Amino acid sequence: MLDKIQSNEILDRLPAHLQQYIKPQNYDNYTPVNQAVWRYVMRKNVQYLSRVAHSSYLEGLKKTGISIDHIPNMYGMNRILKEIGWAAVAVDGFIPPAAFMEFQAFNVLVIASDIRQLEHIEYTPAPDIIHEGAGHAPIIANPEYAEYLRRFGEIGCKAISSSRDYEIYEAIRLLSILKEAEDTPEEEIKAAEEKVDFLQNNIETTSEMAQIRNLHWWTVEYGLIGTPENPKIYGAGLLSSIGESTWCMTDKVAKLPYTIEAVKQDFDITKPQPQLYVTPDFAHLSLVLEEFANSMALRKGGLEGIQKLIDSKNIGTIELSTGLQISGDFTDVIEKDGKPVYIKTKGKTALSYREKELVGHGTENHPDGFGSPIGKLKGINLAIEDMSPRDLRAYDIYEGEDVKLEFEGGIVVKGEIITGTRNLQGKIILISFKNCTVTNGEKILFRPEWGRFDMAVGKEIISAFAGPADNYSFDLITHKTSSTTIKSKKTPEREELENLYEAVRHIREGKNTKFSLNAAFDILKKHHPKDWLLSVEIYELAVYKDQKLANEVLDHLENLKSKRPKTAHLIEDGIRMVNAQLVS
After folding, report:
1. Strand, helix or coil at 408?
2. Which of the listed residues 229, 436, 477, 492 has the most CB atoms within 10 Å of its CB?
3. What does the alpha-carbon distance between residue 168 and residue 161 come to, in Å, rounded to a whole number?
4. What radius of gyration, in Å, describes the C-alpha atoms of the chain?
5. What is the distance between the alpha carbons of residues 246 and 237, in angstroms, rounded to a whole number?
6. Using one digit for the tens of pLDDT, what is the confidence trace for 65-82?
7. 3-class secondary-structure state, position 578
8. What is residue 505's predicted lDDT score, i.e. its pLDDT?
9. Spatial separation of the C-alpha atoms in residues 189 and 175, rounded to whole Å
10. Residue 478: is its pLDDT beyond 80?
């Protein structure tokens, strides 16, 4: 995908499984109405947010080169973003949470390149370029926050999902698309909402990914900073919503101190949030993140970690105390006294060390699964991994020797040792056998006729996390979504309206001297009487050039306010912004 966009050294580091989500921005697809929507939101945001947003926001707008008047070209933004160590890519709407976070770990901002419809100018449940570009990008100019975002991605992409999480992701993606699209039948939206509600309310246990998504929502998306009594906005969802950025500052929204308890608070993307969390500073965000990370299988490992991987029904990795990493679809674990004593995968499996696949131990070498005992040998205090070459010789753990290894957990490995593999510290991490039988009591776990038996060495599982240790071990370029974003319909009426918006924009930019504001306003009133945003733009220009026309437009807008009560406050805000310019 990178061959189709303007890349740079940050984007060049992205692995292929992330590149599959990237798409060209296709800047020419933005219509004049899209540009007007961007301009209205940004003008209102900058005016309002200068009072209620964290100081990094306005500073970040300047640093990231985001214009108030034009939708940003994100690959042009990259020239500026790379100065603060970041980059941006375009994607189609929601992408899986793990991929979204992994992009962050690579210092790459994911931007949904579509833009909300005029009808949803205040808020859209679908990610769009206003939310991502005008919300996320400016704040990452703050170094402390940018490091939090990167670290969050690094930890978050290792969080283990449940098999239900992907269903929820697909359901939320579809709902956001349907709600953003024009003319979606109400019954379709209702059915999609009911499916999301059902999936979210029928979860037996909350996965790590679901919990860390909650933390992401209440900080990166909807975070406040300061004190509950005097908060400032830094969350991108608030920074990009001209409706909710005002709503969140009222007493109707509870302001709670941000703690690890936020991990338990679910959210609804389709509604204003009834409560928000306030962090005293950006450093506190990292403290809570580390507190949560300490509870993850990534750091705890053990029986709980391997069980989470089994429940996830996805590719995951365990790391043993020797540093050996086993990646695959974990299906079984034999336990004793609360500890795992034998683990098993099915299908393609790879062995790695320090995130690099071991030579001769890729998926082509282990195409049908992998199994191995875990733990110490029975009656021997010294673990295999801690044995010196002399110790190994003393216990006949030596090439060419027939050996019977009895583990504390009851697993017995009997066969002829072929060879051993050591790590850089000299610890033995893998022992290969031929003519090998592995048993657990009466149950046979491995037979000689199955070929070579590779036994992982490790007294315990120190880590378990989502995804493979080495991304190149597996074919991860398989993402397919069940839904795609819906584009606006092209009609003669719509095209005429777009042409009017473009003509007025050209007048504002001094590019059009033939088409008059009076002519544009006459056509607008006659053929598009419900449109309000272009009338605001005409009023903005007329107050400087033609007071008679300005008064006519103002009367028209006042009439629209009474006819369209749901947009009356937007019209009033537009008029107020124009009048504020006159005063200044």
Report:
1. coil
2. 436
3. 11
4. 29
5. 12
6. 788 899 988 777 787 788
7. helix
8. 93
9. 7
10. no
CA–CA distance, 1 with 14 (Å, rounded to integer): 11
Tokens coding 372: 């191995």
pLDDT value of position 174: 78
The burial class, CB within 10 Å (0-12 / 13-18 / 19+), for 441 is exposed
Residue 360 CA: distances (Å) to CA of 2, 227, 293, 350, 356:
31, 56, 33, 9, 12
- Predicted local confidence at residue 534, as pLDDT: 96
What whole-number percentage of the chain has pLDDT above 90?
61
AA letter at 52: V
CA dihedral 179, 182, 185, 188 (to 10 degrees): -30
Confidence of residue 216 (pLDDT cuts 50, 70, 90): very high
- Structure tokens of 196? 């999301």
Residue 392, token pair as written in the block: 């190994």
Q: Are strands 275-279 and 224-226 parallel, antiparallel or unpaired?
A: parallel
Task: Decide which of 548 and 164 is more confident.
Answer: 548
The total of other beta-carbon atoms located within 10 Å of residue 444's CB is: 10
Among 184-193, 323-332, 339-348, name the one with the lowest average pLDDT.
184-193
Per-residue model confidence (pLDDT) at position 80 = 78
Q: Which two tokens stand for residue 410?
A: 């009851």
pLDDT score of 330: 98
Which of 106, 128, 129, 116 lies closest to 182 in space, CA to CA? 116
Q: How far apart are CA 249 and CA 242, in angstroms?
A: 12
pLDDT of residue 513: 65
Cβ count near 395 (within 10 Å): 15
Whether residue 21 contacts residue 2, with contact meaning beta carbons closer than 8 Å, is answered with no
Helix orientation angle between 97-105 and 143-156, rounded to the nearest 10 degrees: 130
How far is it, in rounded angstroms, from Cα 5 to Cα 12? 11
Rounded to the nearest 5°, which phi and psi values hold at 336? -150, 130
> Do residues 363 and 469 lie in contact, with contact meaning Cβ atoms separated by under 8 Å?
no
List helix spans (H) across 280-378.
282-293, 297-300, 302-312
- Note the pTM of the prediction, 2 decimals: 0.86
**Distance between CA atoms of 118 and 33, rounded to whole angstroms?**
8
Whether 17 has a pLDDT exceeding 60, the answer reads yes
